[in-house]
Design brief:
Structural class: mainly beta
Oligomer: single chain
């Protein structure tokens, strides 16, 4: 909730993949547990030694970089494909074929499959839309980020599995990102 210049809240994160320079279809990541954006600047310092005491006379920015992080507990095919650096596909099995679980197909069946490792670069636009429990909500648009999965993919677990991602924010013609403060009607 954005109230009195303070923010406690949640929101939704959407991802629009960019594959070979072509923008894909936006989808919601879903049930995001946390989301952060951080900036870092590297500087060069110029000192004067005209006197006994060395004096800082200039500080110049030499580089700027930004990262974003988020995690979700939704293991749908799109999120899982991103976590496996893979692509969604399907496989068709005929009657009598051995299915992935070791059983035999009694009818022709088409089964969704994620081909792991076929998409090592996850690039696209990330959009955060804040919750609406106040009179204003933030909307952050990161124009281009390269995401990397940072969590294990739990298959046997005592708790809900989470998928975590970290991304390098790339500078575009629009800049790194824009944050809008939307009035709630």
């Amino acid at each position: 909730m954005l109230q009195n210049d303070r923010y406690i809240g949640g929101g939704k994160i959407f991802f629009t993949p960019l594959v070979n320079g072509v923008q894909g279809t936006q989808f919601e990541i879903g049930e995001v547990q946390e989301g952060t954006l951080s900036f870092n600047v590297t500087t060069a310092d110029a000192f004067s030694k005209d006197n006994v005491m060395k004096t800082l006379v200039a500080k110049v920015a030499t580089s700027i970089d930004a990262t974003l992080k988020f995690s979700t507990q939704i293991r749908n095919s799109k999120n899982t494909a991103m976590a496996m650096l893979g692509a969604e596909s399907t496989e068709t099995f005929a009657i009598g074929d051995t299915l992935p679980d070791g059983t035999t197909a009694a009818a022709e069946v088409v089964i969704p499959v994620i081909k792991a490792g076929t998409n090592p670069i996850i690039e696209g636009q990330v959009k955060f839309v804040g919750d609406e429990d106040g009179d204003k909500k933030p909307v952050l648009v990161v124009y281009n980020a390269v995401l990397t999965p940072t969590s294990d993919i739990a298959y046997i677990s005592d708790d809900f599995s989470q998928l975590s991602f970290e991304g390098a924010v790339l500078k575009t013609a629009n800049g790194y990102a824009d944050e809008y403060t939307m009035e709630i009607a």
